[in-house]
Amino acid sequence: MRTPSACHARLLLCLAALTTLAPLRHATALPSDAAPAEAARDGAADTTPTTDVAPPALPETPTEADDEPPTALTDARDDAFRGGSTGRIDLRALIQVRYAWTNVVDGDLVQPGDDGGSFGKLDPATAAQWALQQRATAQDDDGWRVERAFVRLLAKAGKRVTGRFVLDLAELHADNAHKAMKLAAIEVRSGKRFDVTLGYIKRRSSLLELFPTAEFEFAWPGPTDGFLRDMGWSGRDTGVLVRFLPLPKRHWLTVHAMASGGGVEDGLAAEPGKLLALRLEGEPWQGHLRLGGSVSLRRETVQAYNPKKGQTPFDVIDSGWMAGADATLALGGVELRYEALTGTRTDLALRKAYKQGRAFMAAWGVASYRARLWGVGVMPAVRAELLDVDRADTDHGQRLLGSAALNVDLGKGARLLLDFSHYATQAGSLALDDVPHASDGTRVPDVDWMRWTVQVQGEF
User: Fold this and answer.
1) How does pLDDT run across 400-448, given as a tens digit for each residue?
2) What is the pTM of this model?
3) Domain spans of the chain?
4) Which of 157, 242, 416, 437 holds its CA 20 to 30 A away from the CA of 403?
5) Topology of domain 4-104+139-459, per CATH?
6) By the 8 A CB rule, do 457 and 214 touch?
């Protein structure tokens, strides 16, 4: 068996070899006076539909005479790079370096005598241990860190077939090798209205997932994004995605249909579609208003096992469904986005252990304004988010997030992000994340916090 360090070394050698095949290409982080011309050149250079890139605003959709079918979600992309490729082989990189500091109010931590559920009234020693774990959970992302170090390889085999591969070296640095691969897909186009993507791609369940994290206006995606990943509704999965545009005016409707294996490690996933997802989106006001809706279905409870560990098959992800609706309005530099989601939880073990209900709901809204100030591109943004992980329990499970951010263009390919977020939760609600470095998946009551983040991003 190869050791993790040996695998990493082989991977890095391969990436080093690839740099001899293609030049790195710069991208612009925020809009500038030359943005329309650059966008036009990019569009002419690459007519292959991509996934996970968000232009500064909703661009004009191509006319019916154009070769490229309009992308109803200009931000529904699977890599973090804007624009097209410079040739048949293209290698690019994106790096985010940040510093974060989280303030947890001591009065919000558990105290001796508080109700500890099955532990009864907390004695001073147990309360002190829980308080330490609460603080560690809230401050787990604090300090200096390389948040992302993306490397993307794009290769074209003619006009209709494209291969894409995205790797996050920051995950390797954090010893998360199993999360390092972000995209590995083959895209095949057939005419102007139909294309197929096969491989490891993003699930089409929520606008939160489709909007590129590298172009997001804020430092933290929010509690809903992490919760949906834990439920197996968002995140990445191996399968097939079909996209087609059935109406006479292509911007009226785009249909995304995806079937995937469900993303279970060591899983019994022989069926081609344990997880099914359908997303519809259109632009009734072309280039300005986009409406979307999605539904996802897990048809059966997913089992997993590993005979090398002496395991027998056991349930890991429950069956269930999720649905959502969203709207995006872009006009005069202002962009407004809103999404509402509801569905059933799939976390069997956690839900049963803490006697929580199945139904959840979430809603979030973002407002941003892109402008130039003294010749510098700036983008202030605000966000409000609500997540209720247990609709049956009105006293626990709800949390609110409010954020304010300022994005500043530092030059071609560089962006500065200043972010302030305030997180509030109902007293006694269970934290959404495990205690850091706890091997048994321990969770403690959630706490309120305030976080300041400074981030610099570079695209090369």
Assistant:
1) 999 999 999 988 889 999 999 999 999 888 899 889 877 667 888 999 9
2) 0.79
3) 4-104+139-459
4) 437
5) Porin (2.40.160)
6) yes
